[in-house]
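Bench notes, afternoon.
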Amino acid sequence: MSRRDKVTVAATLEAPETTGHYERSIDERRYLHVLPRSVIAGLYDVHPWLPFGVITASINDSAYALGRALTAEDLRERRKRIRYRCHRSCSDRTDHRQRFEEDD
């Protein structure tokens, strides 16, 4: 069913023999249409919360991958700068050590 569809459902209820208060309820679950309906139905057959978990994980993974792709160039540039800075500072230290040893 899609949104705003109307469906008539026949239901049969049997009244218990003893008098009392009895509750009946119907659960309706809706999932984002990220996965094919057959996959959602298969996951639901295993457990009602499984489609929710898989859909949430797939959305989160997609958002994470997109974020990494958008910031990948910036990360590469930062790493290059850090390596260059470290390389320069390490080579400067070596020069200072050599000068110190030459002075002795």
